[in-house]
Amino acid sequence: MDTSDAKIKELEKKLLEEEDTVEDVDRAHYILEIGKIYKERKMKKEAIDKFNECITKTQSFNTKVEAHFEILHMGITDKDNELLKEYLEKTRTVIGDSGDWEKRNRLKVYEGLYDIENKNFKAAAKLFLDALMTFTCYELFDYKTFVFYTAITNIITVDRTTLKNRVIDNSDVISCINEIPHQEKFLNTLHEGRYGDFFKEFYYIIEKLKTDFFFSKHYHYFMNEMRVKVYSQFLLSYRSVTIENMAKVF
Questions:
Q1: φ and ψ at 80, to 5 degrees?
Q2: Is residue 99's pLDDT more than 90?
Q3: pLDDT in tens, 131-179
């Protein structure tokens, strides 16, 4: 018997021994912990069954929400769209209009990742901006990675002024963007119209997206959309355009 099997046996024993002596919240906690062990062992069905058992057997708001997020996390890591769709809706219902901003914004990160998977970058961009100040989803990735995703989704979906006001000049973005290779120059060269320098940074961003867990299947789409955005922005600045001045700028 390995360590995780022993831990499950121990938790199940406590559930039986304390059936009539502990509150539902404590019993649900044991069930939640068993679900987490199954999750770590990649036993998806067993984990989901335990998390759902936990959800039905507790009145604790925090425990219910935690169990929902455990299932959402499996949906993200497995790229299981059907599971995500089902439990995003269930989690929205549980959280509802509660005043728990941390959990509401945490849910926005998961919703945004679901939108990326389904190539809805505009929706993801808004959700990520909303969650930027209170990011707590470290089970998914670190804060710098989240800032990178926020910038990437916004740069192709918002106008030049919005990009400047809500992303480039955002204090949360400024706090760490210089630690993200090429990101600061990528944003600023586009906004400032330094297109030759922009395309130098563009190469490195595309190379990163090619191997990114969430963006790898969309990098062609991002590359094409970004080119359209750059050329459109350039053309808006000129009443007449020649091949010669385009060559000089790009």
A1: -95, 95
A2: no
A3: 999 999 999 999 999 999 999 999 999 998 999 999 999 999 999 999 9
d(CA 25, CA 28): 5
Position 48, amino acid: I
How far is 250 from 244, CA to CA, in rounded Å? 10
DSSP state of 218: G
Measured CA to CA, the distance from residue 78 to residue 190 in angstroms comes to 35
Phi and psi at 158, nearest 5°, equal: -115, 160
Tell me how far the alpha carbon of residue 29 is from its chain's centroid: 26
- Give the number of other Cβ atoms within 10 Å of residue 2's Cβ: 7
Residue 68 token pair = 């929902």
For residue range 171-226, what is the model confidence (pLDDT) as tens digits? Answer: 999 999 999 999 999 999 999 999 999 999 999 999 999 999 999 999 999 999 99
Residue 146 is predicted with a pLDDT of 97
Work out the burial of residue 238: count CB atoms within 10 Å of its CB; fewer than 13 is exposed, 13-18 middle, 19 or more buried: exposed
State the Cα–Cα distance between residues 142 and 227, nearest whole angstrom.
Answer: 29
CA distance 170 to 168: 6
Instruction: Kindly state the tokens that stand for 73.
Output: 């996390």
Cβ(16)–Cβ(39) below 8 Å: no
**Mean pLDDT in residue range 97-105:** 88
42: helix, coil or strand? coil
User: Count of CB atoms within 10 A of residue 227's CB?
Assistant: 12
CA distance 163 to 114: 22
